[in-house]
């Protein structure tokens, strides 16, 4: 068996890692995974058993080697693992689409299965343009987005990410210029469910948003945002009222409202979908990440019957087809695992509304993170601590020393991936109270060690 040192050496200079230079390599090799834990080995050969505070970038909600998901994957492989979706269909895709329509906000009735979250955003933007064309408004070719947003790394998705503080400024000449609203005011939600924010700031934001939208409405096809929680843009939480305002603006100016629920969907914020905090329904919604419980890459775009009917009319220059078709669209293996993941979220048949397993799990995460991260508020290097559902964030006064904080957390039994000025966790839903305490104490001690002076 190759040692961790061998693997780390072979990796460096061979593989790119996310948002890193080629020679950055990796600091740890994963040798095993189970439940909410990873087994890591470092370059010195030392073994570290850690709780995965990242849930593999927010997707592995049911944990590693989950028996139900493993069984679903094995059963589908024994049947067939892939078949083209052009002109063919199969039970896993149909069942998944039916389940998504059943779970999604009212009105979303049609499903496009995509390879990844970023591609689902691409499809959503394409659909909005084709919709406006079919409605006789082909001049509407731009989108209204929020500053601070992040929607993926492909080109159309990049164009609606924050154009200044985002990660794609180097590609500005190639990404279409969109229109950006100011970032909404910050908000916090208490354990009791109350929202705290500055009402005067929100009113000022609303006035500016309505004025900007009215000024440019004739060129805008739709509005896109991450509801309530901007993830890679800074783990930033804003009030539900913002979504209501955006819904009103979209209705007033005949735009489509696109909600990117890739990170927030399936319970992460304390509601099954973040839009439900505001009581609004989008015209288009994207989901991904937790859709397969982190097992396989899969995402979906859902839209209303009215949007689909506009395309179906064939009135647009592109005809009635939605012009996208990935090779692995509707992959049976991914769809089968996604169905099993949704079963775990929803619970056995007959589970009463309001008592689905994810609700108790995320409530436990919220209580545990609120308690275990509370001590970091007193540290001199900390600006703010905030918790929303299964998300815990420590915002520092200065940019985080990523390598040092990561190493200090691993030494204390937690795997985290800090960025910007943030040390945060979005752990698996299955984390126990003891594991949440370990995560909290590890992060508190790591921040105190590295940024405490």
Automatic annotation (TrEMBL):
Keyword annotations of the record: Aminotransferase, Biotin biosynthesis, Cytoplasm, Pyridoxal phosphate, S-adenosyl-L-methionine, Transferase
Annotated compartments: Cytoplasm
Sequence positions bearing N6-(pyridoxal phosphate)lysine: 289
Pfam family, one: Aminotran_3
Major localization class: cytoplasm
Residues reported to bind pyridoxal 5'-phosphate: 117-118, 260, 326-327
Catalytic activity of the protein: (8S)-8-amino-7-oxononanoate + S-adenosyl-L-methionine = S-adenosyl-4-methylsulfanyl-2-oxobutanoate + (7R,8S)-7,8-diammoniononanoate
Record carries keyword Cytoplasm: yes
Binding-site residues, substrate: 57, 150, 289, 325, 417
EC number: 2.6.1.62
Pathway this chain belongs to: Cofactor biosynthesis; biotin biosynthesis; 7,8-diaminononanoate from 8-amino-7-oxononanoate (SAM route): step 1/1
Family statement drawn from the similarity comment of this UniProt entry: Belongs to the class-III pyridoxal-phosphate-dependent aminotransferase family. BioA subfamily.
Subunit organization: Homodimer.
Function (record text): Catalyzes the transfer of the alpha-amino group from S-adenosyl-L-methionine (SAM) to 7-keto-8-aminopelargonic acid (KAPA) to form 7,8-diaminopelargonic acid (DAPA). It is the only aminotransferase known to utilize SAM as an amino donor.
Protein name: Adenosylmethionine-8-amino-7-oxononanoate aminotransferase
């Amino acid at each position: 068996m190759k040692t961790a040192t061998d693997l780390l050496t072979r990796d460096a200079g061979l593989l790119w890692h996310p948002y890193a230079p080629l020679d950055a390599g990796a600091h740890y090799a994963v040798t095993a995974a189970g439940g909410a834990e990873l087994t890591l080995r470092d370059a010195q050969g030392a073994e570290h058993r850690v709780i995965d505070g990242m849930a593999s970038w927010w997707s592995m909600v049911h944990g590693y080697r989950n028996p139900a998901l493993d069984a679903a994957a094995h059963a589908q492989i024994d049947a067939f693992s892939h078949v083209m979706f052009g002109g063919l269909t199969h039970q896993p895709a149909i069942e998944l689409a039916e389940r998504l329509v059943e779970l999604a906000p009212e009105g979303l009735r049609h499903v496009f299965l995509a390879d990844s979250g970023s591609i689902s955003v691409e499809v959503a933007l394409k659909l909005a343009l084709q919709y406006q064309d079919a409605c006789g408004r082909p001049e509407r070719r731009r989108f209204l987005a929020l500053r601070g947003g992040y929607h993926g790394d492909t080109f159309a998705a990049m164009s609606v990410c924050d154009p200044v503080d985002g990660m794609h400024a180097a590609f500005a000449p190639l990404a279409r210029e969109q229109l950006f609203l100011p970032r909404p005011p910050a908000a916090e939600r208490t354990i009791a469910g109350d929202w705290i924010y500055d009402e005067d700031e929100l009113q000022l934001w609303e006035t500016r948003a309505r004025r900007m939208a009215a000024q440019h409405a004739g060129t805008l096809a739709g509005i896109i945002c991450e509801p309530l929680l901007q993830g890679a843009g800074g783990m930033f939480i804003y009030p539900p009222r913002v979504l209501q305002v955006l819904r009103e603006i979209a209705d007033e100016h005949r735009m489509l409202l696109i909600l990117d629920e890739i990170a927030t969907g399936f319970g992460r914020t304390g509601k099954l979908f973040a839009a439900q905090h505001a009581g609004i329904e989008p015209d288009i919604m994207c989901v991904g990440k937790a859709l397969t419980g982190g097992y396989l890459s899969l995402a979906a775009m859902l839209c209303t019957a009215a949007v689909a009917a506009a395309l179906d009319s064939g009135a647009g220059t592109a005809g009635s087809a939605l012009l996208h078709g990935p090779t692995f669209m509707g992959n049976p293996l991914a769809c089968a695992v996604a169905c099993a993941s949704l079963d775990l979220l929803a619970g056995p048949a007959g589970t009463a509304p309001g008592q689905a397993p994810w609700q108790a799990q995320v409530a436990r995460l919220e209580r545990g993170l609120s308690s275990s991260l509370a001590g970091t508020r007193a540290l001199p290097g900390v600006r703010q601590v905030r918790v929303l559902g299964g998300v815990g964030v420590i915002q520092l006064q200065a940019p985080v020393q990523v390598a040092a904080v990561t190493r200090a957390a691993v030494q204390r039994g937690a795997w985290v991936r800090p960025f910007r000025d943030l040390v945060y966790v979005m752990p698996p839903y299955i984390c126990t109270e003891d594991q949440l305490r370990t995560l909290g104490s590890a992060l508190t001690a790591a921040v105190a060690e590295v940024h405490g002076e």
